[in-house]
Design brief:
Length: about 750
């Protein structure tokens, strides 16, 4: 007995330790409650507390970012080890079997058994459950149950026995169950009426016995008051969730539970203040019932938590230098080519206006410097070409600046249609860059330099391009490589036919290794031996996308190579390879995933701008007040133009913003009186959409609604719903069921969109 008493004292000591310990992360009410029961579910030394912990954890499984199966199995094995030879369980391990604790254990086993499927222990759990049911059936006194076999029937053990039998497949049509139901209300209670009401509703739901609507209404009224202990409130809230669809009335009742929770050390729990003659603070019972109630509201987490094709956008953005550009490698000096491809990749990720503007400012300054180098050295440089292509892509040059660029490029040609280096003569890569730039600047394909460049490039090789060397009458193409060949093929693509390029395309295909394209398929080692080149992501992606446009499909092989390079760390700190990985994966329309839980977590710890058009400023001010009440003073009003900067809550009309730019997993179409979201249709009237989004600097919560639905939008924040939101998106809808024209909490539903 000394050991049991020590165990009973543990929760008292732990409360002080947990409350004094600080939270170390943003914590949802579900995750925090689970953390507490994982840690202390078996700390009371009582079968009842252990059983309720198993039940709550089993119901929470799949709704938190934790694998609860190992813990559920551990606690269940412990529970089974305490089963007495007669099939029942006692108040403490080893004590005489009783109906009450056996019922709690049976409820736990019924919830836990599915977590043993596929392993040998499944049959151990099943045998324990069946022998427990037999003990329960053998322990009846007349039509009901007392605390132990052959004792006077009482309400508490009978209602728990009904719940246990219901969870194990017995329905109200079963003679044992129906006779107990008929007797229940006449039994001595010896239990407070609020707890009795909650347990009665829970048991009747388990056996499928209908209840009067007035009983549910009474529960609602009780929950709306202030006379309940934490355990009573938790039990009644759980009972209410069993009989109510997920209306905002349920959310409001969960919020009342939220207000009386205790937090600390990344845990959340509830505690009853002990009253004479009880001297022990109970934390497991209210926490277990509270978690059961909350998990009824929280939708399951999506099974695919990690997108297999996710782009390494955050890594790429982290490589940006303070001056705004990107280096070839993380931390190396900013480079025009690296910056060009990094910007194309960021554009494919998510809106990042601050990142892009900073890079464009660097590029504009660098472009001026590069022009001077081009004119001084009389050659077209790689830096000038990529700076020019960046500014053209982002429309940062006016017509006169474009005309000037054409003049600069033509002024450094070695001959008509030929660009290169004075000492080496015309070169395929420089000529290809000039050709590509001129076409991008709007020069016609019939321009003499364009025609001459095309003809010269096609005339000097039939199997790829590299370094061109001409000595006397015998020109040579040496170091033919994949990079130069792709550069030339991309330049010729708008003005040459497939037949003109066929031999070069076939050469490019021949250079592919098992996984992708290297700079050269083979090269000579230091001792003259032939070595196989290592494929690169940038060259492989460039070659794959180019060849696909000509009907040669290597998309799946390249996808596997890119994902392998991403996951293995092969491209880490390499800007070009990371950028091309992003660009390629974006062709599969897979931007980084974002969930409402990401927004919820940010709301707990980060600052937000609440942005809106001018006609919703009034709504925004009220919503900010509600947000500050719920999360603290970290919310400020701002214009819609701040939407892409940092974290934001966007209050807007359905057609005011392009949600897909910030969340490509959400397809939204609003027309007439209907809303179509991810192929599901909803009425537009009295509907508010909650959709998460993502930017380079943070997350966005889109709150989209027509102006005449503003009261519904404000109600979302008034009752604190964002603290519980989870899933890809939520559709909030109000239906005036009683026809009074007033928005009642029980008339507003929140449906998670998968």
């Amino acid at each position: 007995m000394m050991k049991r008493r020590a165990l009973k004292l543990i929760p008292i000591i732990l409360i002080g330790l947990i409350v004094l310990a600080p939270l170390t992360m943003a914590l949802s009410i579900t995750e925090g409650s689970v953390n507490f029961l994982r840690e202390f579910g078996d700390s009371s030394g009582q079968i009842r507390g252990l059983s309720l912990s198993i039940v709550a954890l089993a119901e929470a499984s799949g709704k938190v970012n934790q694998d609860l199966t190992p813990k559920i199995r551990e606690l269940t094995r412990e529970l089974i080890s305490y089963q007495n030879p007669d099939g029942g369980w006692g108040y403490f391990p080893g004590s005489v079997s009783n109906v009450l604790d056996t019922s709690y254990a049976l409820i736990a086993l019924s919830k836990a058994q599915k977590y043993f499927e596929g392993i040998d222990d499944f049959f151990t759990v099943d045998d324990a459950r069946k022998s427990g049911i037999q003990f329960l059936l053998n322990s009846r006194t007349g039509n009901a149950w007392g605390y132990v076999s052959e004792s006077i029937p009482m309400f508490y053990p009978t209602v728990l026995a009904l719940w246990a039998l219901g969870e194990n497949g017995y329905s109200s049509s079963n003679p044992v169950v129906s006779s107990a139901i008929d007797t229940l209300d006449d039994l001595p209670m010896y239990l407070d009426e609020y707890t009795a009401l909650g347990l009665r509703l829970i048991a009747f739901k388990a056996v499928g016995k209908p209840v009067n609507a007035s009983e549910v209404e009474r529960v609602m009224a009780l929950l709306d008051g202030n006379d309940l202990s934490p355990t009573q409130r938790a039990i009644l809230t759980y009972a209410m969730t069993l009989y109510s669809e997920p209306t905002f009335e349920v959310v409001a009742m969960i919020a009342r539970l939220d207000q009386i929770k205790h937090t600390g050390a990344n845990m959340i729990f509830w505690a009853d203040t002990p009253k004479y003659p009880i001297s022990i603070t109970d934390t497991l019972t209210p926490t277990a019932y509270a978690l059961l109630a909350i998990t009824k509201l929280v939708p399951p987490i999506r099974e695919v938590a990690v997108n297999p094709n996710e782009m390494p956008c955050d890594q790429l953005i982290s490589y940006q230098n303070p001056d705004g550009g990107w280096g070839i490698y993380k931390g190396s000096p900013s480079n025009e080519k690296a910056t060009y491809y990094a910007l194309l990749a960021v554009e494919a990720c998510y809106p990042a206006p601050t990142v892009v503007e900073k890079a464009l400012n660097w590029t504009e300054n660098k472009f001026k410097e590069d022009e001077k180098v081009v004119l001084n050295e009389s050659r077209l440089t790689v830096g000038y070409y990529y700076a020019l292509m960046t500014l053209l892509h982002f429309n940062r040059l006016n017509e006169s600046e474009k005309e000037h660029a054409v003049e600069v490029i033509k002024s450094v040609k070695l001959d008509r249609g030929k660009w290169g280096i004075a000492d080496l003569g015309p070169q395929p890569s420089e000529t290809a860059m000039a050709l590509s730039a001129l076409l991008a600047l709007g020069v016609e394909a019939s321009d003499p330099d364009v025609v001459a460049a095309k003809n010269w490039l096609l005339s000097i090789s039939s199997t790829g391009w590299g370094l061109y060397y001409q000595s006397g009458l015998y020109p040579m193409m040496i170091d033919i490589n994949v990079l130069d060949t792709i550069t030339v093929l991309k330049a010729l693509e708008p003005i040459a036919t497939k037949s003109e390029l066929e031999s070069h395309l076939q050469w490019l295909i021949s250079q592919r290794t098992e996984k992708g394209w290297p700079y050269s398929k083979e090269y000579a080692g230091a001792n003259g031996t032939s070595l196989l080149g290592m494929p690169r992501v940038d060259l492989t992606v460039d070659a794959t996308l180019l060849l696909l446009r000509y009907g040669f499909d290597y998309t799946q092989q390249t996808l596997e190579f890119v994902k392998s390079a991403r996951d293995s760390g092969l491209i880490t700190n390499d800007t070009l390879e990371t950028a091309f990985a992003v660009i390629y994966l974006s062709s599969f329309n897979k931007m980084p995933m974002v969930d409402l839980s990401n927004v919820r977590n940010a709301l707990e710890t980060s600052t937000f701008n609440v942005v809106c058009p001018g006609d919703r400023v009034g709504d925004a001010r009220e919503i900010i007040d509600y947000l500050r009440e719920t999360f603290g003073y970290r919310f400020d009003l701002g214009p819609l133009s701040l939407m892409g900067e940092g974290n934001a809550i966007v209050l807007a009309g359905f057609n005011d913003v392009n949600v897909s730019s910030y969340n490509r997993y959400m397809a939204l179409d609003v027309s007439g009186n209907s809303i179509e979201l991810n192929n599901s249709t909803y009425p537009r009237r009295n509907t508010v959409l909650l959709i998460p989004g993502r930017t380079a600097d943070g997350v966005i919560l889109f709150v989209l609604y027509d102006k005449d639905s503003s009261e519904i939008a404000k109600l979302i924040f008034k009752i604190g719903y964002p603290k519980y939101m989870q899933g890809p998106a939520v559709v909030v809808h109000y239906e005036d069921r009683n026809g009074d024209g007033k928005i009642g909490l029980n008339e507003v539903t929140a449906k998670t969109v998968g």
